[in-house]
């Protein structure tokens, strides 16, 4: 969020810097054009008529548009400036027509000026709508200069008699200068936008990489190195969440506390490396035995829990399975499945020992008052009772 705000502020500052020179240039162009109109009026020595208003009105509209746009947006209205520049370009496109109309049709210069003043607005609007290209400034400005130079210096036409031709000389110069400066401003603006886009892209990549690293770190922090199951800290954290869900939705929850039998004997006789292999074998069997369907009822049907029940290693040889919306009777099915799969794993594996486990099941109901720690202690006691019962059965055999 902070990076986005910084980029927005930077982009706004850059845009204002690149448009500020164009603002004053276009305003200067307005006054210069107005001066040319006044000069043309004085040269022609015509009375103040409707044609004068018709010629002045287009530039008044341009200026009014700039002012209104500026007052509304409180910014330098780039497209408004370009619109005025387009009016000048349109004027240059009418130079050849000026010569034909004034000298062949003998139309008064002020009448023609009114015509090409409006034509410039129409042509300028069209150019803006179609998308303006920098070469139009030069293409439409330079021919005006060449044409007027030919008329004045080669055809020896007195300039005082053709004010509609002398004005385009100055207007053509203004047009070319405006085009060059605006093109430079556009180029700087383009470079700044490109820089901002590159920075945005780099920030997006960096943020994405950071998220991946954070997710990886979170996964590593919650995973038991040996088994790949949840570690004790993550398992207890999830259990607290599931207890809260049980209370919220009024659904039962069952804990399966499992402990590998005589792991100490395996470590003492065969070494700790073999003991680690035994833990890994048992955790693999436990993971394969636990199914999504063991989360019964409401949660499985609604897709609220879209993964298998939580399985974690909470001690050296101790494991915990959290079954949501499940009672002890259904949890016994999981215990039998683990026993069967563990037996299949050890058939013909050549190991000098056989893995077995003891378990304790405790059912939590929303009406229960036990805390998470108390639930684990109670499940551990039930597991210990199961282990002692198995030892007694062995002695009797």
Report on this structure.
By secondary structure, the protein is an alpha+beta fold. The protein folds into 2 domains: 2-195, no CATH class; 232-390, Alpha-Beta Plaits, CATH 3.30.70. It is built from 13 helices and 4 strands. It has helices spanning 2-44, 50-73, 78-93, 95-104, 109-130, 134-154, 163-222, 232-249, 263-270, 272-289, 297-302, 328-345, 372-396; strands at residues 253-260, 310-313, 318-324, 357-364. It has a 4-stranded antiparallel β-sheet with strand order 2-3-1-4, with helices on both faces. A hairpin with a 4-residue loop joins strand 2 (310-313) and strand 3 (318-324). Helix 9 packs antiparallel against helix 10. The two termini are 70 Å apart.
Helices, by number, come to 13
Q: What is the subunit arrangement here?
A: single chain
How many domain regions? 2
Give the helix/strand class: alpha+beta
Shape: elongated
- Overall pLDDT: 68
Instruction: Work out the helicity level.
Output: over 70%
Q: How many E-type strands? A: 4
Distance linking N and C termini: 70 Å
Largest sheet: 4 strands, antiparallel
Order of helices and strands: HHHHHHHHEHHHEEHEH
Low-confidence stretches: 13-23, 73-77, 89-102, 124-142, 161-166, 168-181, 295-307
**Strand residue percentage:** 5-15%
Kindly report the spatial arrangement of strands forming the biggest sheet.
Answer: 2-3-1-4
Radius of gyration: 44 Å
């Amino acid at each position: 969020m902070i990076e986005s705000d910084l980029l927005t502020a930077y982009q706004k500052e850059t845009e204002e810097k690149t448009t500020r020179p164009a603002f004053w240039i276009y305003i200067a162009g307005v006054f210069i054009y107005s001066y040319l109109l006044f000069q043309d009026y004085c040269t022609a020595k015509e009375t103040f008529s409707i044609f004068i208003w018709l010629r002045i009105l287009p530039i008044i509209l341009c200026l009014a548009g700039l002012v209104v746009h500026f007052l509304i947006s409180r910014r330098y209205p780039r497209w408004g400036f370009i619109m005025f520049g387009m009016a000048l370009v349109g004027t240059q496109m009418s130079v050849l027509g000026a010569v034909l109309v004034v000298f062949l049709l003998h139309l008064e210069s002020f009448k023609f000026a009114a015509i090409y003043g409006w034509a410039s607005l129409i042509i300028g609007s069209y150019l803006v709508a179609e998308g303006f290209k920098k070469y139009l400034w030069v293409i439409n400005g330079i021919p005006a200069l060449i044409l007027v130079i030919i008329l004045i210096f080669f055809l020896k036409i007195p300039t005082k008699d053709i004010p509609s031709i002398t004005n385009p000389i100055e207007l053509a110069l203004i047009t070319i200068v405006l085009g060059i400066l605006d093109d430079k401003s556009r180029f700087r603006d383009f470079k700044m936008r490109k820089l901002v886009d590159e920075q945005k892209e780099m920030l997006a990549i960096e943020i994405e990489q950071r998220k991946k690293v954070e997710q990886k770190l979170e996964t590593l922090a919650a995973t038991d190195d040996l088994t790949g199951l949840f570690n004790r800290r993550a398992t207890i954290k999830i259990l607290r969440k599931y207890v809260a869900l049980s209370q919220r939705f009024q659904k039962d929850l069952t804990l399966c506390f499992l402990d590998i039998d005589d792991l100490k004997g395996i470590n003492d006789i065969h070494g700790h490396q073999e003991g680690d292999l035994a833990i890994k074998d048992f955790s693999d069997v436990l993971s394969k035995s636990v199914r999504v369907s063991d989360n019964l009822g409401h949660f499985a049907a609604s897709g609220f829990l879209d993964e298998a029940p939580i399985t974690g290693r909470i001690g050296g040889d101790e494991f915990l399975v959290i079954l949501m919306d499940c009672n002890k009777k259904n949890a016994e099915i999981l215990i039998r499945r683990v026993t069967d799969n563990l037996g299949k794993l050890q058939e013909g594996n050549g190991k000098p020992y056989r893995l077995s486990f003891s378990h304790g099941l405790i059912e939590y109901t929303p009406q229960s008052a036990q805390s998470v720690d108390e639930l684990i202690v109670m499940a551990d006691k039930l597991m210990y009772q199961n282990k002692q019962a198995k030892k007694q059965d062995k002695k009797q055999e």
